[in-house]
Each structure stands twice: as C-alpha cells, then as structure tokens.
Design a protein that fits this description.
By secondary structure, this protein is an alpha/beta fold. 34% of the residues lie in helices and 22% in strands. Helix 13 links the parallel strand 18 and strand 19. The structure holds NADP nicotinamide-adenine-dinucleotide phosphate (NAP).
C-alpha cells in the first residue's frame, strides 16, 4: 500500500496517524492511505504567499505560459502511465480515464497558447481608456493584476486530472501559487500527477502545494488576497462559503456544484432523424460515461409526449448493450461508482426519485458485474425512470442522483413548457436541445439561457462535427447559476479573472497611457 503525502513548503510530508484508506472500487482492495494530520497549514500558506507568489509575479504572462506549456509536455509524456491509477482507484474504464486525462492536458495546452499571446505583459488592461469629464485630459480605465495571496483548489472525486488542470492552468497563468486538494477517495491519480510535477522542478518554489487528506485548519487561515475555488456538492459548497475567514476577510470564492442538467428533444425531431440519433447517443453516453458521475451529465430527458414511447424503447435498447464490470477488463464499458458512500447515495437517490417515477429500464440498478465476485464492488447498472407527471414530479427537479440514472419527462413539445419544467431545478451547468426547427431552437435557447451556464444546440448539422454537451471546453465558460454553484471557470481569458484584481484607474491621459502600457 502506498502512503500519500502532502507537499508543503517545498517538501513531502507524511501525515501522523492512520488516515483514510483508498480502495479499488471494483474489487474493494485497499490501494493507499491518505492523511494530512500534523501538516503545518499556516507555514504552508505563508510559504506559498511569500515565496511562490512573488516568484510567479516576477514573470510575465508569456513566461508563465511557458511554465504551463512545459507542464503540459511533461504530463502528456506520462499519459499512458496515468491511466492505470484512474482505472484502479477511480473505477474508470480506459475510455473514462482518457476522457479525464486528455481533457486535463488539452486544457493546459490551450492556456499555454493563450498565455503566450499575452507576451511580456504583467497585468491585463481592459478595453480602451474612457474620457471621464468635459476635459479631454481626465481619463479612466481598468487593469487586472495578480492577487497577492494563494489559490486553494478543492476538487471533486470524479475528475482528479481535469479538475486539477482547469484550475491550475488559470491560477498559474494569472500569477497565483496554488494549493491542490483532491477528493481523498480517488486521490491516487492526482497524487501521481503531483509527483511528476514536483520531480519536473518546472514550477518555482512555493508555486505548488498539495494536500493528501483533509484541509485541517487551512480554510480558517485564509486572508483577503486569497482565492478558494471549490468543485463538489452544493452542501459542501454552502459550508465552505460560510466559513468564518471566508466571510470576514472577503476571500474570493468560486463554487462549481451539482446540477440537474437536461436534454430536450424538440417536436420536429422525428424518430430516426439525425438530430434524434444525436440525442440518443448523448443521453446514453452521459448516463454511462464515468458511470454517470459527471457534473455535466444529463439527468432530465424531456421528450414530446408523442415521441415518449419511441425514445423509451430506443434508449432501453442502447442501455441493454452496456457491459458493467471491472473496468480493467477490455469488454467492460461501464465501471463501478467511486465509493461505497456513492453507491449508498445512488441507491437512496433512485428510491427517492421513484416516488414520482416508474422504472422503465434497469431494475433499480441491480446488476451482475463482469469479472467480479458477486457482492463485491460498488456497482450499479444504468437506470431509466419515467415521471408519472413531470409538472408535479418535485423530486426529479430537486435531487441529483450522481450515477447512471436519468428520468424521462414527457412534455407537450412547446418551448414554453420545456423552459417552465427545467427552470424548476434552480440552475444548471448545461442543457442540450435537439432538433432542426430553427425558431424552436432559438426560443428554447433564449428561454433557458438565464438558468444555464452553457447551452448545446444539437441540430443535424452538428452530427459528427461537435464535441458532446458533457465535455467542458476551455474556450467557453464552465459553471451555472443557482444550485449549480453560481460560479464560473475557464472561458479563455475570463478564467484568469478569479485570480486577478480589477482596479479602476483615474488619471491624466498620458499618465494613464503609460500605466497601461499604451504610452
Ligand atoms: P463533496 O463531498 O462536496 O467533496 C468535494 C471536495 O470537497 C472533496 O475534495 C472533499 O474532500 C472536499 N470537502 C468536503 N468537505 C469539506 C470541508 N468541510 N472542508 C474542506 N473540504 C471539504 O463532493 P464529491 O462527492 O467529491 O463530488 C460529487 C459532487 O460534485 C456532485 O454533486 C457533482 O455534481 C459535483 N461536481 C460538480 C462539478 C462542477 O464543475 N460543477 C464537477 C464535478 C463534480 P474529501 O474527499 O477529503 O472529503
């Protein structure tokens, strides 16, 4: 068994005492322990703020982009090696593992290129300067400079690589040192990534810290220049947001939480049409990729009542081809849930949804897993439910079951009804809409926009041309309103804004031009 250590103040530190045990979720074999007891978080934060921060701020955006690019090159060279811990500890199939790892390195590569285009600048200037009075001399504008604190990154269990990369790329490029805290249960992959980053010696001393295990008193020691970026459940997000130090010091917080994402089939999408087929493919992929443990996965499936029987039949046929079992085996297409707690939560979640639905596929998730002794592992099969009455089915619009579970919601086919139903969940990361009637697509997109961080319009023109709606792209923002956390990550340069302070400047025009590099 491996003992995961934390990396603070430029050194690997082993926690005191026993710690949590990380398992293989298919076989329940223990793989590692993680424990941060005794780690000096005060010293860790001070080292990051006083050593890592100044070293990063000394560099220009272009130079920091080179660091991010070098991280990409180093980690990409270990791609195949990193797939093994994702399978063993994350319950990922090989394809799931590649999704996480390739998404991660793709994000690093994107930000390396974007940062290069900023060249020798050390701060960002927003827009043109504005004349502020009748006098042509008095001008104003905004600059963005790196915050002088530390960025604490708390990640969810489902994307140990991508979760790290999307936050790290933006913070490091912006010039802030990072403290990376992965979810403990699946931390093996994140740990190996940290070992590679530390061994590479690419980052300046203090630019990277890593916590294996709990955060101890770290969050109570955050200060006004620090940033807390969290991904996980909305309940943990709410708890962290209400921390004393966070409130008293106005620590900047970003929360990416859970979401009842939706797919909407439009009334014009006839059975067998390209848009209809795209819809089926996306729903099945989202239900089964990473065993449905994806924050962007489709949970609510809106289908026009006239198409409900056809969709139910077609989804059931495709789901029956899913092979659940030990993800280390080639023939398996869906692995287990990540932890025993996840299994308990998903089973309880299915039972909860059943108060408003009937089960149309999957027998409540009971499954005989391939390559695993009966009763071993945290397995649940794909489950398709159908709401008795979508308008009154309150559980379906309120409870995220973080597993291979989705609910069919027949509706009358009008955009107005679809929007009214979907708005009930209080905010989504992403919705996808399938059809070819432009007027309908536009009306739905406009109606859903206030409730969604991202909208994917799946017309037949996109078949074979687009990444699926569940894939987060660094060019576009990731995050959603309301229960989705109200946060925003990525989105090109906007992703850096969390780590930069925007300051308004008022001065005579030549002085302002000099300050903003326009003089
Ligand atoms: P979680 O239980 O909220 O945990 C998330 C992270 O927070 C873990 O690293 C966890 O560490 C840490 N944590 C928990 N309590 C904490 C505390 N009191 N202080 C400091 N850190 C704390 O969520 P999860 O079960 O890992 O992830 C699943 C959820 O995340 C789902 O609801 C999913 O929708 C959501 N998610 C959202 C996104 C998005 O981008 N919006 C992406 C992925 C997942 P330990 O593991 O050590 O407890």
């Amino acid at each position: 068994m491996i003992t995961l250590r934390s990396f603070v103040c430029g050194k690997w530190v082993e926690g005191a005492g026993e710690g949590a045990t990380l398992l293989n979720p298919a076989t329940e074999v223990p793989l590692a322990t993680a424990n941060s007891n005794g780690v000096d978080f005060q010293a860790a934060l001070a080292h990051a703020r006083t050593v890592g921060g100044p070293a990063l701020r000394e560099l220009s955006f272009g130079e920091r982009a080179q660091l991010v690019g070098a991280l990409y090159t180093t980690l990409h060279a270990h791609r195949d090696e990193l797939i093994a811990p994702a399978i063993a500890n994350g319950g990922n199939t090989r394809s799931d593992a590649k999704f996480d790892i390739d998404g991660a390195w793709g994000t690093l590569a994107y930000y390396a290129q974007l940062g290069e285009s900023l060249g020798s600048a050390k701060e960002l200037v927003e827009g043109e300067s504005l004349q502020l009075s009748r006098s042509a001399r008095f001008h104003g504008g905004h600059i963005l400079t790196p915050r002088h604190g530390v960025a604490v990154h708390i990640n969810a269990f489902n994307f140990p690589a991508w979760g790290f990369a999307e936050k790290a790329a933006c913070a490091l490029l912006a010039g802030m040192p990072i403290v990376v805290k992965p979810a403990t249960a699946t931390a093996l992959l994140a740990y190996r990534i940290m070992e590679l980053v530390v061994e590479s010696k690419l980052l300046p001393d203090g630019a990277l810290s890593f916590i294996a295990g709990q955060t101890g008193d770290l969050l109570s020691r955050l200060e006004g220049q620090d940033v807390l970026a969290f991904t996980g459940s909305s309940s943990t997000g709410a708890e962290l947001r209400s921390g004393r130090a966070v409130i008293e010091c106005s620590v900047r917080v970003n929360v990416e939480a859970d979401s009842l994402n939706a797919a909407v089939l439009c009334a014009d999408a006839e059975r067998g049409s390209p848009a209809y087929e795209l819809f089926l493919t996306d729903v099945v992929r989202d239900m089964t990729q990473k065993a449905g443990q994806k924050c962007t996965a489709i949970r609510r499936v809106l289908v026009p009542t006239v198409l409900a029987e056809a969709v139910q039949e077609d989804l059931a046929e495709r789901l029956s081809a899913v092979k659940v079992g030990d993800p280390a085996r080639d023939e398996v297409t869906m692995g287990p849930l990540a932890t025993a707690q996840q299994l308990a939560d998903v089973r309880a979640g299915i039972a909860h949804l059943r108060t408003d639905t009937e089960s149309v596929f999957g027998d409540g998730g009971a499954v005989s897993a391939i390559g695993v002794p009966t009763g071993r592992g945290f397995f649940v099969g794909p489950v398709l439910l159908r709401a008795h009455d979508p308008a009154t089915a309150s559980t379906v619009h309120a409870h995220e079951v973080f597993g291979p579970v989705a609910t069919l919601l027949p509706y009358d086919g009008t955009p107005r009804s679809a929007v009214a139903l979907l708005a009930r969940s209080g905010g989504m990361l992403v919705s996808s809409i399938y059809g070819d009637a432009r007027e309908t697509l536009v009306e739905l997109a406009r109606g859903l926009a206030p409730y969604c961080g991202r909208i994917f319009l799946g017309s037949s023109k996109l078949v074979g041309q687009a990444s699926p709606p569940g894939t987060v792209l660094p060019q576009l923002i990731h995050g959603g309103p309301g229960r989705a956390g109200g946060g925003q990550e990525l989105g090109g340069l906007q992703g850096l804004h969390l780590y930069l302070q925007r300051t308004a400047l008022q001065a005579d025009k030549p002085l302002l031009d000099q300050l903003t590099g326009r003089g």
